[in-house]
Amino acid sequence: MDVKNLNEVVPFITKDGSEIRELLAHRNSAIRNQSLAEARLPVGGSTQEHYHSQAEEIYYITHGTGKMRIDGELREVKPGDAIAIPRGQKHKLWNTGNEVLRLLCCCAPAYEHEDTVITEVDSPG
Predict the structure, then answer these.
(1) Where are the strands (E) in 53-124, listed by range?
(2) What is the tens place of the pLDDT at every residue in 49-96?
(3) Which domains does the chain have, with CATH numbers?
(4) Tell me: the pLDDT tens digits for 24-62?
């Protein structure tokens, strides 16, 4: 049985600049076709705009507030929001609140640096 605790998973930085803790994926469990991670963005922080050639993603906001842009559409996001990100769609997330923005991220297939295509270095929201 694979059970991982968030507080015991070592964080790493993704290609888009997010700090994530990968809870379950092919690297650390029997899961083969998806991954689940918690991502964190500091106050005032953001990801670099990017897309994934293969993976579709679901972001689920658990703490903090932010702004999400997917293929030019911009929305405010808050705890309880689930965000669908189809493969190939450019996306960027900003922390607009006064606490660390935390979210669960499910990728299918699993997250890989090689599947992340950065489309900008930095852009205002």
Answers:
(1) 56-63, 66-70, 73-77, 82-85, 91-95, 101-108, 116-118
(2) 999 999 999 999 999 999 999 999 999 999 999 999 999 999 999 999
(3) 15-118 (2.60.120.10)
(4) 999 999 999 999 999 999 999 999 999 999 999 999 999
Long-range CB contact pairs, 96-100, < 8 A, 24+: 96/65, 96/66, 96/67, 96/125, 97/43, 97/64, 97/65, 97/66, 98/43, 99/43, 99/63, 99/64, 100/40, 100/41, 100/42, 100/43, 100/63, 100/64
Instruction: Report whether 44 contacts 61 (CB < 8 A).
Output: no
The structure's pTM equals: 0.92
Q: Are 2 and 27 in contact (CB under 8 A)?
A: no
The angle at the Cα of 96, spanning 91 to 99, to the nearest 5 degrees, equals 120
User: How many CB atoms within 10 Å of residue 1?
Assistant: 4
